[in-house]
Amino acid sequence: MITARYFVAALLGFVSLFISVTAQEITSDTYFYGQSPPVYPSPEGSGSGGWNAAYAKAKALVAKMTLEEKSNMTYGTSSVKNGCSGNIPPIARLHFPGLCLSDAGNGVRGTDFVNSYPSGIHVGASWNKALARQRANAMAAEFRTKGVNVALGPVVGPLGRIAEAGRNWEGISNDPYLCGSLGAETVQGFREKGVINSVKHYIGNEQETNRNPSGNVASVSSNIDDKTIHELYLWPFAELVHAGAGSIMCSYNRVNNSYACSNSKTMNGLLKTELGYQGFVVSDWGAQHSGVASTLAGLDMAMPSSSFWGANMIEAINNGSVPESRLDDMVTRIIASWYYAGQDFGYPAPGIGMPTSLTQPHTVVNAKTSSAAQPLLSGAIEGHVLVKNTKNALPLHHPQLLSVFGYDADVPYAWDAGQFGSFAAINNQIQNETQVVAGGSGANNPAYISSPFVALTARAYQDGTSLSWNFYSMNPSVNPASDACLVFINSYATEGRDRSGLHDPASDTLVNNVAASCSNTIVVIHNAGIRLVDQFVDNPNVTAIIFAHLPGQDSGYAITSILYGDTSPSGKLPYTVAKNESDYGNLLSPALPAGDFVLFPQSDFSEGVYTDYRAFDANNIEPRYEFGFGLTYTTFSYSHLQISNSASKQQYPSGPIGLGGPTDLWNVLVTVSAQITNTGRVSAAEIAQLYVGIPGGPVKQLRGYDKIQIQPGRTETITFQLLRRDLSVWDVVAQKWALQSGQYKIYVGSSSRILPLTGTLTI
Ligand SMILES: *[C@@H]1O[C@H](CO)[C@@H](O)[C@H](O)[C@H]1NC(C)=O
Ligand SMILES: *[C@@H]1O[C@H](CO)[C@@H](O)[C@H](O)[C@H]1NC(C)=O
Ligand SMILES: *[C@@H]1O[C@H](CO)[C@@H](O)[C@H](O)[C@H]1NC(C)=O
Ligand SMILES: *[C@@H]1O[C@H](CO)[C@@H](O)[C@H](O)[C@H]1NC(C)=O
Ligand SMILES: *[C@@H]1O[C@H](CO)[C@@H](O)[C@H](O)[C@H]1NC(C)=O
Ligand SMILES: *[C@@H]1O[C@H](CO)[C@@H](O)[C@H](O)[C@H]1NC(C)=O
User: Fold this and answer.
1) What is the fold of 634-762?
2) What percent of the chain shows pLDDT beyond 90?
3) Distances, alpha carbon 50 to alpha carbons 55, 339, 341, in Å
């Protein structure tokens, strides 16, 4: 029985067609051999891209290590007792202190005296590069004080391909450009404090369903063609490598049916050859599935332990299956990242502030500082996206009576020591309390929780406002004297499972029930991913809707500031909100084991680069709220588009490989500017966006943005610099980034569909 597989090169990318001649279940992995091209040997780190000094020191240290010491550096040990997610043991003889690796991308998890920062999706919704850097700086200071050498984040994959995917909220955006630029700021912010980032999850980790093998069912395989992986999924990783990331975490899924942590094409090929990556690759926790094979494919460290390495590694070197130079390179990459971050001098001892238990006596290491206050609060404020504001509902005008409803308005009934860092406790309760962060290993630890209700109470105290509330009734009674009814709902998500839909009948009903007797119903949604609003958006009594995302511990202060107009909302959607689930088509739900492949679930990325707004544009589907959309309390006008396109341009880059690829991919080729005027009455920030229509590609793709505060009546000029990489497509034949000859379209405006300025650029 044969299942024939054909690859058809379609006009705009590669579409793979699987044609079953006869139905027969595939039972052996050998069926898939060769689907991911072999790339060997594993490139040795060279020290290029500014890593020379770190490599020189690392090589000197590694040269002093015995075979067993080197081997011990490559996998996590349980012999070190602390609360870190993973530990590399010390080598006392060489004064190497060991390494602590710990969650998460939005703040330290599993300990006390730390803060809960806005999550990835909230950073994406803020579109603020400087703020992303400040947040990273403040978080990194806490990781450092706690003795965490490697912070497990930021997340730039998943890239939101599947609307219901459970970890999209940990990632920054569904757009690779937005994700990459804010992710790069994050890496730089961590580097300024000497903390190594482990950028995750590499690569194609777009669903939770079947992410790990279970019984005799293998992990889902993300089948991604060469053009799509370069232009979409690899894009943010390239940018974070360019920014100096010291660690990349390979993911649970398979890519073209080869486990991501044993895949030589993705690790040796794309990452260590094409992107010139100098750091180390660490497995996601438990994602190592082979010994010799993962070693040769480019995996450098296994976590939290390894059943494949250790004694077997030494045997494999002794019997010639693994060259010792490969082990040397693994350890050199690990140690070089440590030197590159400057952790060899003055760094707190690994895990010093990470106790194994918070209910037992432990040394207090207070990582909180006053410098975190501003990024915590601004970060929380800026990720709120106002999408509807009618009848002058917001900002509130000195309300005499506010009625507050919804299970998301108040703090959890308990937040005690047992809950710190515990997946289950957080998971079970967040559905009945205000959601400041979602579930799984990205659930960070708040120092306190400013809930919407607590913050509104403080404001009411100041203003002499009356409050009425009912958090749990799904059909509460409303005092007709209410100036406004605030309904707080959330949509929960967690690592380990995908969501079952994008709306929620219970909270939709709550909103409509309140609106039936309140003509000024304002809905606030703490959404861990896309949340549809069509069940209530057209209700005339629903006057305002805010996507409040996952603000971290300052949630209540932030929403109160926005509701009262102390700050004009300034976030924009980092994803597309459809009118209905079906509008996402095949990209709504995760792939499931099916047909001949019940033992080997297949997820074919046959849509190519057409995900999120690229798909809505290509399929002519009108979204409810488009990518990049968000309202504020003023209005802006756009004018004076200027495109300066001077230098003549060769088709391909010609520079040497630096961090992230050929160095000249980062050369500025075109400059675009525009003027923006605040035509309203209050000061507010606008996020100006630039989209490029590359000949033969999607109608438009984000390639520039800037967030700028503009006073009423003032005009500011915004300048966008377009790099070679921004204007290139991946040429699968030449295996290079290529400029296209012809007319490029340039669009500038306030969202992906409100683009008042258009121009062209000829290359
Ligand atoms: C996956 O397979 C496609 C189709 O053959 C190919 O274009 C791509 O390079 C492969 N990628 C990896 C990482 O194996
Ligand atoms: C390597 O690790 C093993 C297991 O933790 C330990 O028993 C051994 O002493 C270590 N070897 C060296 C040389 O540190
Ligand atoms: C060498 O050792 C490794 C690790 O134990 C083992 O997997 C491999 O089969 C051995 N190869 C030979 C040729 O003995
Ligand atoms: C939420 O908490 C309230 C009050 O403790 C309780 O009555 C209700 O059953 C809870 N709902 C859920 C879904 O846990
Ligand atoms: C809007 O609210 C008013 C009460 O303020 C109510 O009389 C009316 O029926 C509501 N309209 C809808 C469409 O629910
Ligand atoms: C909305 O999407 C759901 C889920 O895909 C589908 O069952 C339903 O038919 C769609 N409704 C409309 C009006 O398109």
Assistant:
1) Immunoglobulin-like (2.60.40)
2) 91
3) 10, 12, 12
Please give the torsion angle defined by the CA atoms of residues 371, 374, 379 and 384, in that order, rounded to the nearest 10 degrees.
160
Which single residue is written with the structure tokens 């990720």?
Answer: 383
Kindly state which CATH superfamily the domain 370-583 is placed in: Glycoside hydrolase family 3 C-terminal domain (3.40.50.1700)
Measure the CA–CA gap between 271 and 204, rounded to whole angstroms: 14
| 626 Cα–ligand 6 center, Å | 19
**Angle CA 61–67–73, to nearest 5:** 65
Indicate which residue's Cα is closest to atom 4 of ligand 4. Answer: 472
The CATH number of 4-97+196-340, from 3.20.20.300, 3.30.2130.10, 3.40.50.150, 3.40.190.10, is 3.20.20.300
Q: How far is CA 482 from CA 53, 407, 539, in A?
A: 66, 19, 18
pLDDT above 70: residue 5: no
Q: State how far the Cα of 181 lies from the Cα of 759, in Å rounded to an integer.
A: 24
| Locus of tokens 């308005």 | 409
Distance 582 CA to ligand 6 centre (A): 5
Domain ranges of the chain: 4-97+196-340, 370-583, 634-762
* Separation CA 457–CA 230 (nearest Å): 50
Give the mean pLDDT of the chain.
Answer: 94
94 lines ligand 2 (CB under 6 A): no
Q: Report pLDDT for 430.
A: 57
Alpha carbons 512 and 505: distance in angstroms, whole number: 11
Residue 424 exposed, middle or buried by CB count within 10 Å (0-12, 13-18, 19+): exposed
